[in-house]
């Protein structure tokens, strides 16, 4: 398994990640609610926005298997609005057939390396309060639930997980 940057010039890779973001919403929220949250066009725009350095300091990572197929992704960005620069993990997804093999762990670890390089002191992510797999994944890195509230689009109860980057275990490169 190899983690690399998405090819920012590849419309096919951007479309694939957007499609998997939609699959994430369907899996986490259920088909009806999941399809109501964002259109595929909005999601594709969202991937492109994270790749536009004039708009945001963002990163789109993909994990590929030995054959070069993309089996997972993670999107994150730096938030400089508060007193302390914070890394925000926006979304992560791994194809069902490749789960429980450490793919998401590798993607999150790479994001932590990047956050540190960007000077972030905190890291955080929001997810549905019922997404126990994702919550377990981040708790493994020492994140704790630090906030909660409804999703602005469809009202789903969400939790915010956060950690000080200094306290997060980071694999040596
Ligand atoms: C959550 C998700 C990204 C995890 O991906 P993964 O590659 O299977 O995760 P990893 O193999 O790296 O697991 C790392 C740790 O996460 C936790 N975890 C992952 N899947 C879990 C599960 N099904 N049940 C409980 N804990 C789980 C465990 O602590 C695990 O460590 P362990 O295997 O040593 O016990 C994946 O299940 C997924 O894509 N889910 C749907 C999309 C989603 O919910 N995305 C987040 C939306 S914001």
Task: Describe this structure as you would to a colleague.
- By secondary structure, this protein is an alpha+beta fold.
- The chain has one domain: 3-Layer(aba) Sandwich (Aminopeptidase).
- Helix content is 35%, strand content 30%.
- It is built from 5 helices and 7 strands.
- It has a 7-stranded mixed beta sheet with strand order 1-2-3-4-5-7-6, with helices on both faces.
- Helix 1 crosses helix 3.
- The model has no long low-confidence stretch (mean pLDDT 95).
- The structure holds coenzyme A.
- The site of coenzyme A has 21 residues, from helix 1, strand 4, helix 4 and helix 5.
Layout of strands and helices, then pairs:
Elements: E1 2-5, H1 11-29, H2 31-37, H3 40-50, E2 58-64, E3 70-79, E4 86-94, H4 103-117, E5 122-128, H5 132-140, E6 144-150, E7 157-164
Parallel strand pairs: 4-5
Antiparallel strand pairs: 1-2, 2-3, 3-4, 5-7, 6-7
Helix pairs in contact: 1-2, 1-3
User: How big a fraction of the residues is strand?
Assistant: 25-35%
Question: What's the story with the biggest beta sheet?
Answer: 7 strands, mixed
The total of helices stands at 5
Give me the count of strands. Answer: 7
> How many domains make up the coordinates?
1
The CATH architecture can be named as: 3-Layer(aba) Sandwich
- Assign an overall shape: globular
Q: Could you state the CATH homologous superfamily?
A: Gcn5-related N-acetyltransferase (GNAT)
Ends apart, CA distance between termini:
15 Å
Helical fraction equals 25-40%
In the CATH hierarchy, the third-tier topology is known as Aminopeptidase
> Radius of gyration in whole Å, from Cα?
15 Å
Order of helices and strands: EHHHEEEHEHEE
CATH class: Alpha Beta
Low-confidence runs: none
What's the overall average pLDDT, rounded? 95
């Amino acid at each position: 398994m190899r983690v690399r940057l998405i090819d920012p010039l590849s419309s096919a890779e951007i479309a694939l990640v957007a499609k998997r973001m939609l699959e994430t919403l369907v899996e986490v929220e259920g088909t009806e609610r999941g399809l109501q949250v964002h259109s595929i066009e909005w999601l594709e725009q969202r991937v492109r926005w994270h790749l536009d350095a004039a708009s945001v300091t963002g990163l789109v990572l993909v994990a590929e298997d030995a054959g070069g197929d993309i089996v997972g992704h993670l999107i994150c960005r730096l938030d400089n609005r508060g007193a302390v620069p914070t890394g925000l993990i926006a979304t992560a997804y791994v194809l069902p057939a490749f789960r429980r093999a450490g793919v998401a762990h590798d993607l999150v670890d790479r994001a932590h390396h990047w956050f540190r390089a960007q000077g972030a002191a905190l890291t955080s992510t929001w997810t549905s309060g019922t997404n126990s797999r994702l919550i377990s994944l981040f708790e493994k890195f020492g994140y704790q639930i630090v906030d909660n509230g409804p999703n602005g689009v469809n009202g789903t109860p969400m939790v915010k997980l956060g950690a000080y980057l200094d306290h997060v275990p980071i694999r040596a490169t």
